[in-house]
Design brief:
The structure is a homotetramer of 111-residue chains. With 111 residues, chain A is an alpha+beta fold. In chain A, 41% of the residues lie in helices and 31% in strands. A four-stranded antiparallel beta sheet of chain A has the order 2-3-1-4, with helices on one face. The N and C termini of chain A lie far apart (33 Å). Chains in contact: A-B, A-C, A-D, B-C, B-D, C-D. At the A-B interface, strand 1, helix 1, strand 2, strand 4 and helix 3 of A face strand 1, helix 1, strand 2, strand 4 and helix 3 of B. Strand 4 (77-87) of chain A pairs antiparallel with strand 4 (77-87) of chain D, so a sheet runs across the interface.
Chain lengths: 111, 111, 111, 111
């Protein structure tokens, strides 16, 4: 799923439409979910961002396409914060990176 | 819950211990959850960060205290990314800010 | 300058006014510089954020006060991304944290 | 420089090597500058991140290649925070996006 030319990326992004004249952004974020659904990548909406993971280039393209879609909806400017991580110490089974991190923390706390 | 002197903050933070000699961070993040539990603030662990909300000064202090705890566990350096939002167009019932954002997106998508 | 109760923080923040009806944000960011100037903390405007450092509680309060000022200018909602770091392996002379990081990289590259 | 298929991106990223056993990261960041130099994109090292801009796909690839290089230097895990913005309300002359933002703020403050 990842070669040395395309690292497997575990990410989260928070997209903010600017200059829209209204403080609500839920309509734009919903549109992003439709884009992510089409991307085929594993994603999950959280309170302050959306978890997303896959080969780096595909994760990047999916976020880019969210920008395209939100611009098409009328937002003249967009600022996005992306957190993105890669590791070479072990293999991540595709689609399991973000979930596994939560599980490891829960296991430690349950002891 | 928030006065003009202390805005209500809906936030998410991702704390990264540095110089620890091991790539795993789950033990440090678990320790942060114990600190957050004591803070009395509403929080939720997500795949690439932890949702946290409350009066700005308390949210900031809770994250600061996570740094103190992770330093105490042996991490000589810490880098944290915080996303933090405030709004004055409407009241946020304490503890509902992050959840409400997810719900609004889900409502739009279910139509 | 920092005690165990208030870690010295080297930070950078990017404040984004939302729902303003205009894509430009320079006026809001200029107002933030006036707030930071009053804070007495060391700061520097960069292309995609503002470097800021000092005791954690003061850094946090300065960013909070930028939110207050930007709300007062008419922005109903604000989303800010903060990168904040602390370290216990060595002392940081007040106001030198961000500059020193750039210098060390430049020294290595000039070799 | 940017088509609807590849938005022009004004960005900043902060790369953090994890599990390295030493709190200092300057050597890794210097290596990233060498990668960015080769990319041909406009970049500038700041205190808490590196400004970078160009077509979205090239900006993304440059940051990906920094991850590859830092892994090659021995870091088993990397976490990066990327701030990335696009706009459709006006054209950005290639390489001027981040600088222009600082200038506009300075112009307002000098009045």
């Amino acid at each position: 799923m990842s070669t040395s030319d395309d690292l497997y990326a575990v990410a989260d992004f928070c997209l903010i439409p600017m200059g829209t004249g209204e403080p609500s952004v839920a309509g734009y974020i919903a549109e992003c979910q439709r884009i992510l659904e089409k991307s085929g990548l594993k994603y999950k909406v959280c309170g302050y961002g959306t978890n997303l993971e896959g080969p780096w280039s595909e994760v990047s393209k999916a976020i880019h396409d969210c920008h395209l879609a939100v611009h098409a909806q009328g937002a003249p400017r967009i600022a996005t914060d992306i957190r993105i991580g890669t590791r070479t110490d072990r293999e991540i089974a595709p689609g399991t990176g973000n979930e596994a991190k939560v599980k490891r923390v829960e296991e430690i706390l349950s002891k």
